[in-house]
Amino acid sequence: TLDLTCRRMPCFVKFSEMEEMVNMEAEINEVQPLQLSVTVGSKLQFYFVGKKCEILQDMNRHLEAILKEKRDLRKRLIKHRCQESLPIEATFHKCIVELLTEAVTFIEKLESHLQSLRSIPQIPHMMNNMDTTLSKTEVLMIELEELTEQILKWEELQKEVYSN
């Protein structure tokens, strides 16, 4: 009842109007930053979308230009480069011939050089194998020397037996 009576009284009417205005201002203050952030976000988004669109258009123009020059590019790719040689002065002909012979020699030996490079990681394993082989060879040499001594002793015994 107190609420009902206070709203009807003229002195409280102004108070209720003021309360409504304060509530409306609070709502407006809550909505405005959201609208501002949405507007700024959408403007930034449109800006970046516009930049991406410009980049895509530039790429599209570039690809169109390439497609227009497709025949010329194919011809240039198919055409041998040696047909577009530069004139060489006569004084350098000897140098060019020597350079070409060296280039041919290099190309001939290229596979063996590449094979040598490929074998570099295997060198430690090969060294271990060589050490093992050397050790076995030394053992065989010692055995051969012992066998040679035995053969010589046997030969001397045979001479003594025949001489007797």
Automatic annotation (TrEMBL):
InterPro entries: HAUS2 (IPR028346). The keyword Coiled coil applies. The keyword Transmembrane helix does not apply. GO terms for cellular component: centrosome; HAUS complex; mitotic spindle microtubule. Keywords: Coiled coil. It holds the Pfam family HAUS2. Residues 56-83, 137-164 form a coiled coil. GO terms for biological process: centrosome cycle; microtubule nucleation; spindle assembly. This is HAUS2 protein. It comes from Anthoscopus minutus. The lineage of its organism: Eukaryota, Metazoa, Chordata, Craniata, Vertebrata.
